[in-house]
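Final report, Chapter 2: Outcomes

The project's central promise was a pipeline that accepts a single protein chain and returns its three-dimensional structure in a standardized token representation, suitable for archiving and comparison. That pipeline is now operational. To close this chapter, we reproduce one record exactly as it appears in the project archive, with the input sequence first and the structure output second.
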Amino acid sequence: MAQIPGEVDNMEGLPATNNNNPAARWESPDRGWEREQPAASTAAASLFECSRIKALADEREAVQKKTFTKWVNSHLARVGCHIADLYADLRDGFVLTRLLEVLSGEQLPRPTRGRMRIHSLENVDKALQFLKEQRVHLENVGSHDIVDGNHRLTLGLVWTIILRFQIQVIKIETEDNRETRSAKDALLLWCQMKTAGYPEVNIQNFTTSWRDGLAFNALIHRHRPDLVDFSKLTKSNANYNLQRAFRTAEQHLGLTRLLDPEDVNMEAPDEKSIITYVVSFYHYFSKMKALAVEGKRIGKVLDQVLEVGKIIERYEELAAELLAWIHRTVGLISNQKFANSLSGVQQQLQAFTAYCTLEKPVKFQEKGNLEVLLFSIQSKLRACNRRLFVPREGCGIWDIDKAWGQLEKAEHEREAALRAELIRQEKLELLAQRFDHKVAMRESWLNENQRLVSQDNFGYELPAVEAAMKKHEAIEADIAAYEERVQGVAELAQALAAEGYYDARRVAAQRDSVLRQWALLTGLVGARRTRLEQNLALQKIFQEMVYMVDWMEEMQVGRTWSPGL
């Protein structure tokens, strides 16, 4: 796997057994029989241990893949790229090139266009060559390994990139300035320094020390105590601690959620995945600290170079721009008019999430910079023994905080309304599916019964016609009982229309079609009854005529034999 000097993974191996001992083979049969059972037991235990190690390795690989995929996407989002499968989407070299450009800030050679294997090999080779130029040691990793989607080496390459561009830059000096640590040790030392003094937090590694979630919450609380109430957290509630820390980091710090609680609260957490996530905390808080320091430095420079009036004008300009953005954004997200379809509402929810994670953090940083700028102005005025600056009405920090509070309230209402509308649209989709299913069943039934009542196979004798009448009456009873189901279709269509279903015209057309077929069926049934009644009356007349003919024949026979009596 790819390595960076100074960062070598800890590998565990299985103890090898020596089966080539001649003395063991020449022992007495009795002694061999005594050892046969323990040998079988040892083999079974060894097989179980091998299976367990493989299962743990597969589990770590799955966690690494998920974590590395999210980490890659968090950086590719800057250039509008996204990957779904880490192994497959890095194979053509395009995404790998964009990722290195984002991380390094340098322009890599233009990728070769084409989808043939040779093009992918060439693009990946360019990326690997760039890493070598950055003095990154790549061990046993070739372009063909990445193009072929080799899981282990692909994960190793991504880990190498993380080490080079995220971890290797970390350097922390100890208090006595006699020792300088780098890479993983420096990150571990930083975590220990930031969590010192927190009860039940003892970070000794990047695996089990993070399982209970207290370490993550301690890091956040150290820098943002307003976001976490550490006193209410307990070591026994690990999943809750992890979930709260990850959600807080994502929602309030804008950090991509690389891990889930089940990835950490396990027997053997993956070290690389936890390091990848923890280093994002380090860079965020280091940047926040650097911004504060930079703001103070800029304030001093401005105090030395610019006039107080120019600094005040700059403050008021930035404050006005930020307030205008806040008011404009509040107006936009307060609009409760949503797309009238499930897919449309889902897109609006995605857009809102992107705003919360991409656009808003930038403005939050501008808000912090304004506070630093105002502090610089007041410091300069104090140094000059002048009256403190009072921002014009509506542009003070308190006004910005109030507007920011309104923004967060509007965001909360927007999210709640979006999710409520999403649930409503999902229910409408289910109702529409139910309507379509019922329409299909009703149309099939109506067509079958229309075909049935269109047949006039009454027979040519009175008993047959009478039997046909009874069967027709049964059909009429069945059709009359089915009317409620037809009305059910109309009621579903009315419910969809009342809720403003986006495809209400199609629903109404299908409803009208069912009702027309129902009217046609009832008309056919009525016409068939009329024909049956006419046929029945005619058959009765024929029957009476037959009776009359028989009676006349009997009378004629009687007259013929009367003279002989």
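Archive annotation: The first helix runs from residue 22 to 25.
This record, like all others produced under the grant, will remain available to the consortium after the project formally closes.
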